[in-house]
Amino acid sequence: MKQNGMCLASQDGFGQVYDCGSCGNIHVCVGPVSLSLSPPAYLDLVAMLSTSAANFEMWMEHRKTLESDREMPGYGVD
Ligand SMILES: [Zn+2]
Q1: How many angstroms is it from 48 CA to the middle of ligand 1?
Q2: What pLDDT digit, counting tens, does each position of 1-20 carry?
Q3: What is the value of pTM for the model shown?
Q4: N or C: which end of the chain has fewer CB within 10 A?
């Protein structure tokens, strides 16, 4: 009895996420990097990446603020 795999997502030239249908893991491939994760570990990864994306947005805003502070008169090397 052969199970069928399922592509869960893919982006040309970047990577893909799929269930091969035989080992029970979710495969996450980005470039040359390939992770095989159990379904709970895969969901943990998704949650972690989602949290990191939200924190990344806040971090980028914070960095912009720091950079604009540096551009204010009285700051920086000029
Ligand atoms: Zn597999």
Answers
A1: 22
A2: 456 899 999 999 999 999 99
A3: 0.76
A4: N
